[in-house]
Amino acid sequence: MTPRRVPRRKLLATVLATTSLLLSTLTTITVAAAPAFADGPCSTSTGGGPGGSGPGGIPDDPDQDPSQEPQLTPEQMEAYVAENESRNGLYGDTHVYMDSAVPPHPTVGVGFNLDRSDAQALLTAVGANYAAVRAGTQDLTPLQIITLFKGDYRAAVANVGRVIDNFNALSSARQVVLIDMMYNLGPTRFGQFTGVINAVKSGNFLAASIQMQNSKWAKQVGNRAKKGMRLMSQGAVCDPRDMPRYVPVPNGGGGGWTSYPGGVEAIPWGGNSDSDFWMKLKSLASEVACYTTTVTVTGANGTYSVSTVRCD
């Protein structure tokens, strides 16, 4: 049987159509697979002058890679975490509300979960009535909100340092992502992010970002995770919108004295390191002063740091 010949023009048209379809399909696949963030820092061309500060309020350092700016100050790092935990940032929520978790938890202050095992002890320590706060018949004061936040923030920093052995070598933009995740998840759940942890330890920050993106946590927290992925991948605050709005004000003269919302001031109070000094927090509107520190505990889930509080 003689094969049927296809006209050359028709054959060419068929080949072109098929090729166009394949290219269209490949293009679609490539676009869909592209990550939403880039590997590497953003580039900045400006910096502070002598005695001044560069982008993000970081003091000039001649040994610092300028492409790694802007970074975050310690005060901006605290504010970043607070704004991810509360719509009011460091002002917190004075009145109890139900968070967005499934199932939801009664929450107050700067993301302080009232269902946590030590919630009653900590609220009692700051002079609040746990049952009344949970029932919505008592609100927290600015001093109580900041005291609870400072205790949990410092515990989160200590816990990240236990897990990430190269934590101190990271840029502050990457450090704050890990602190933020620890603050939000707690040491047990954070420890389950082995892909993120191992990628950070090996210096593969793009892989760490992708691991974050592929987690159930990222789907739950939405924009919080997207900001964290950008900072982790780039190692700097490339998008100004990722900078926190309200930042506590460090007082001049050194010593770590810092002013917080609601007339609350904090200062390190004895000790030799972040893990053992007490932090004194005082309300300018009253004679009440609170002290918070971190202690190490060992339980079924391993060894980790928690906050302790006392108020006079």
Structural features, described:
The protein is an alpha+beta fold. It is built from ten helices and nine strands. A hairpin with a 7-residue loop joins β4 (249-250) and β5. The longest helix is centred in the first third of the chain and has 26 residues, at 8-33. The protein is globular and about 50 Å long. Residues 1-6, 8-38 and 43-66 have low confidence and may be disordered.
Short description:
The chain is of the alpha+beta class. The protein is built from 10 helices and 9 strands.
Numbering strands along the chain, what is their spatial order in the largest sheet?
4-5-6-7-8-9
Question: What is the mean predicted local confidence, pLDDT?
Answer: 81
Main sheet specs: 6 strands, antiparallel
**Beta-strand content:** 15-25%
Topology as H/E string?
HHEEEHHHHHHHHEEEEEE
Topology, element by element:
Elements lengths: L7 H26 L40 H12 L7 E6 L7 E4 L2 E2 L5 H7 L4 H6 L6 H22 L8 H19 L3 H9 L2 H9 L2 H6 L1 H12 L14 E2 L7 E3 L3 E6 L8 E6 L5 E11 L2 E10 L1
Antiparallel strand pairs: 1-2, 2-3, 4-5, 5-6, 6-7, 7-8, 8-9
Helix pairs in contact: 2-6, 5-6, 6-10, 7-8, 8-10
